[in-house]
Amino acid sequence: MGFPIYVLIFVGFFFAFVSSVKSHPNLISQVFSGQVSKTDSKGALSHINSLDRKKYIQELIGKIEEHELYDTKHWKRLLRYKKNLLGKETSEIDSKAYFFSLKGNTNPKEEMISTLLSFFEEEPEDPSRMHPQCFFPERFFWMNSILHFDSSLLTFRKCSRFEEWKKVLDLDHIRLVFASYYMQAPASMFGHSFFKMNSRNNQSSELLDYGVNFAADPGEISPISYMIGGLTGGYPGKFGIFPYYLKINEYNHLEGRDLWEYKLKLNEEEKERFLRHLWEMGRADFDYYFLTANCAYQLIQLLEVAKPSLEINAKAGKIVTPSGTMELVFQENDLVEEIVYRPSLNTKIRENLNVMRDDEKRMFFRLFGEGEKIASEIKKEDKVRKTLVLDTLLLSWQYGSLQSDSGKEHPGYGELLSERSKLAEETVVLPERKPFPPHHAHSLSRVSLGYGNSSLGNFSELQYRIAYHDLLNSSRGQSPHSELEFFSTKLRNYEGGRQEWTSMDVLKLSSLSPYDSVTRKLSYSFRFGWDTALVSEKRKFEFSDLFWKEKDPIRRQAANLDVMAGYSFANPFFGKEENSIFSLLGGISAQGSSYFHQGQRFGPQVSGQYLHEWGDFKIHFLYGYRYYAASGNEDQFTSGIKLRYSLSKDHELRFEYGRQKRYDECFLSYHYLF
Questions:
Q1: What are the backbone angles phi and psi of residue 311, rounded to the nearest 5°?
Q2: What is the model's pLDDT at position 33?
Q3: What is the helix (H) or strand (E) element at residue 457, kind and residue range?
Q4: Where do the DUF7840 domain residues begin and end (predicted)?
Q5: What is the phi/psi pair of residue 472, to 5°?
Q6: In the CATH hierarchy, which fold is given to the domain comprising 442-540+547-673?
Q7: For range 449-454, the mean pLDDT
Q8: What pLDDT is stored for residue 221 in this prediction?
């Protein structure tokens, strides 16, 4: 169609460059201390006293070289060797403490030989330091399984700290946990995944289990700086271990995020390997990238070490996401035994409110707003399901105290508990409305082709999006009523051969969170990039201008920034199902182009939107007004309607109609997500 191919090349190379540039507590405080000595494999036997041992070491090195053990898949996984853009193998691990050889991060052979030599070192004199066999138990275990070390020539060290650590964990099974999207914080907009290690000691109190996390720790910075740093690998990522109840409190209660636990089927040998390598990861740190080397990517690498038959990351492609890896894990034969859904505090409150009758809601909001005269209110109402109302009120006050700065308990909480204990249990049947688990989410990259008609003629359009999700995509397995896109680009070709770079959103972000008296969440929208603006054509004055002031519109590219905030309300027209939302936002708009008065136009703007999703369909009505008169430019009115039909999880058809002053267009397109 004659599209400017250099645009696509530019976007592709920019993303490749970003990917190649270079929270959480450390892994239980008792795990690591001391230094690992660096060696060069040439002439590194000077510390070995026995001639027999030196000869034995030479034999082992000969076996390593003969069988090229340093080139095996498991060794490269342990050291995280990957080929860079130049085809050279380089470890993704940045910390020098993870390597024995000075060349260990780029030379698998040197690192294996140096690792072997370190195993023959004497026990450290300092009791706070550990022997290399104990620093890297999986390396030692695996090399011993292949080389069959002679215990008369190589002393097998007792790793008491490592064994005690394993004893404390007493691992029964492992779960891969997905924390749903949290659009109020940049670090959580993509969702998050971590491991949960279920202990044999905590069968009846799993909140006392431990979790395994990988996260970036950027310190105190602005959300925009965090987003930029996360896209360019600007922060170190580290593994950490934490009590599971802390994540329940943070995700389930404070942030209102649902949790999905995927129980993994691993045998005893694989679970032991998991623990040995997890212990080793305490010495490693990595560059953290939101879209590639993130929590999901690193956790899967740990899982692949534990279960060598897995090849999950190889299937993930360039963009790696928590929800995408959950799908890949689920698709592995006989890997997921069970899926457990843990709704958030916020979800429980909404579910209870959805099943309440009008009289029960009136009672709930009276008590929620006043918090007084609980006993008299309960006595007044005979027909309401009091246990449902009071249980919801307890959850709401608990949520409110967690959200408040003081963290103080609601003053009526004690009385409410007392009154609740006096009530007989009632049978309240909640509808089975479990949301779609994350492995049902659509793929994140997108390409689309379409054809349309406009006031300026017919056109064909190509769209490409690196990631992630827009308002019209299916909400299954995703955060509903949200949008997060990177480098979403549109190119057009009009009849007659005129080409147009229609838009490129470097970052587009929207969260239309329903507002209610309990959660009180604001909605917001942010958009930065390039857009096509409708402007009047610059030409010399003509006599006809005295009688016809409106000039022919033309489309020109302009730098664009939109920031808005406001309120959204769920289900304003359709029952109790959470499938529709109305939002009203206000903010500022700023654009830059030589076609504007003084090269720019800016001013306040308002936007109204309505979205409704049912089955495989979703409809989006929108209206916007931008006041540019103060900057010497014409005001802008926009309105439109969009309709999406999902052919399947990753295939969509869309119809769009948009209108501005002196311009309108309609458009039909096919979207493929991958």
A1: -135, 50
A2: 39
A3: strand 457-465
A4: 436-665
A5: -95, -10
A6: Porin (2.40.160)
A7: 97
A8: 74
Distance of CA 149 to the CA centre of its chain: 44
Q: Where does 541-660 show beta strands of DSSP type E?
A: 553-570, 580-592, 600-614, 617-626, 636-648, 651-660
pLDDT in tens, 81-131: 999 888 899 999 999 999 999 999 999 999 999 999 999 999 998 888 999
Six-digit token pair at 486? 């990177």
**Helix, strand, or coil here: 107?**
coil
DSSP 390-415: HHHHHHHHHHHHHHSSS-PPPTTHHH
Give the CA diameter of the chain: 106
Q: Which of 330, 324, 332, 287 is nearest to 307 (CA)?
A: 332
Strand partners, 499: 493
> Cα–Cα distance between 299 and 312 in angstroms, integer?
11
User: Are the CB atoms for 241 and 211 separated by under 8 Å?
Assistant: yes
Which residues contact residue 469 at a Cβ distance below 8 angstroms, ignoring those fewer than 6 apart? 442, 444, 478, 479, 482, 483, 484, 485
Structure pTM?
0.85
Cβ count within 10 A of residue 176: 25
CA–CA dist 368, 362 (Å, integer) = 10
Is residue 306 a contact partner of residue 278, using CB atoms and an 8 Å limit?
Answer: no
- Measured CA distances, 389 to 374, 380, 430, 571, 609 (Å): 11, 14, 13, 21, 32
Query: Per the structure block, which two tokens stand in for 192?
Result: 């998050």
Q: How far is CA 516 from CA 365, 520, 570, in A?
A: 11, 5, 9
427 pLDDT tier (thresholds 50, 70, 90): low
**What pLDDT, on the 0 to 100 scale, is given for residue 540?**
43
Answer yes or no: are the C-beta atoms of 635 and 629 closer than 8 Å. yes
Q: In this predicted model, what pLDDT tens digit does every residue of 462-496 receive, in sequence order?
A: 999 998 999 999 999 998 899 999 999 999 999 98
State the burial class of residue 90 (Cβ atoms within 10 Å of its Cβ: 0-12, 13-18, 19+).
middle
- Helix 51-67 to helix 108-118 angle, to the nearest 10 degrees? 150
What sign results for the dihedral spanned by CA atoms 572, 577, 580, 583?
positive
Residues listed for the chain: 674
Q: What is the mean pLDDT of the chain?
A: 87
Q: Are strands 499-511 and 523-536 parallel, antiparallel or unpaired?
A: antiparallel
Q: Is the separation of the CB atoms in 239 and 278 below 8 Å?
A: yes
* Distance (Å, whole) CA 254 – CA 401: 10
Q: Are strands 259-264 and 171-179 parallel, antiparallel or unpaired?
A: antiparallel
Give the start-to-end residue ranges of the domains of the chain.
Answer: 41-158, 171-342, 345-422, 442-540+547-673
Asked if residue 526 lies in contact with residue 563, where contact means CB atoms within 8 angstroms, the answer is yes
User: Is residue 253 within 8 Å of residue 342, measured between CB atoms?
Assistant: no
Determine the Cα–Cα distance for residues 655 and 667; give it in Å rounded to an integer.
Answer: 6
What DSSP state is assigned to residue 252?
I
Which contiguous run of DSSP H or E holds residue 64? Answer: helix 51-67
Residue 500's SS3 state is: strand
Q: Are 18 and 231 in contact (CB under 8 A)?
A: yes
